[in-house]
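retry 2 of 3: previous attempt timed out while embedding S-adenosylmethionine. Reduced batch size to 1 and resubmitted. Inputs unchanged:
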Amino acid sequence: MEDRPPPDLRTHQPHSARMYDYLLGGKDHYTVDSEAAEKALTAFPMLRTAARENRKFLGRAVRYLVREAGIRQFIDLGSGLPTAENVHQVAQSADPGAHVVYVDNDPIVLVHGSALLARDARTAVIQGDIRAPRAVLDHPQTRALIDFERPVGVLAVAVLHFVADEEDPEGIVRVLREAVPPGSHFILSHATADIAPEAAMGVQRAYRSQGVPLTLRGRERFTEFFAGLELVEPGVQVVCDWRATEPEHRRPDHADVSWYGGIGRLAAG
Ligand SMILES: C[S@@+](CC[C@H](N)C(=O)[O-])C[C@H]1O[C@@H](n2cnc3c(N)ncnc32)[C@H](O)[C@@H]1O
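retry 2 succeeded.
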């Protein structure tokens, strides 16, 4: 780390990792990011609720993988800035020996994540792009921490909507799927305009107008990301409903969440 030049944090332009941090109430963002997130909030005033529900889904899904599917190693693509209940904390609370590789294309994630994990040899943060999945899989730190002979938990949570159609998001998931053995699980989530079209498309416009590519997709298209995988019960759900621990009357309206999630399992043969 010491002899590398300081990373270009691109603080003059909003970035999705820091906007998400702002929405979740974190401190690792700049004025450009909070201003950009406020524009999205104007279009979709419940966006903070949506982000929190997505994050809660991620926690429940990782807990499922650790406790019920026996997964002990994770690759978290588009991991975001460290927040509450990071994947390694959830996984290592069940098994301190669990391994996690965090991957994000925003250099600020590397800076903050490396500081958080400085003394944790079972966890690494690498700068990588989900659109170049082979490079992520071949990265020396991925190779050091992940045993590709054993099932892997692959997360692409709230990141595939930053991959445009022409960048082949299904192809990206396919490359990842082909790299991991049977028993591996994929946790995916994705924002949608199915439920509250006007507000959600307002968010897409707000992000795009500030240079942050966002492509909302419908339920059918999202479900296609699970091709070649078996959907774990209860299948694709609005994230607040996926194995919810709260009773229905305490969960937000679907229109205020507008985010699908699910887990797919790679079966043998
Ligand atoms: C909305 S945040 C989601 C964070 C976390 N996965 C979660 O759901 O709580 C999206 C993250 O994806 C990252 N990201 C966006 N495009 C990416 C890409 N092409 N490759 C890797 N990471 C990307 C952003 O930097 C950001 O940290």
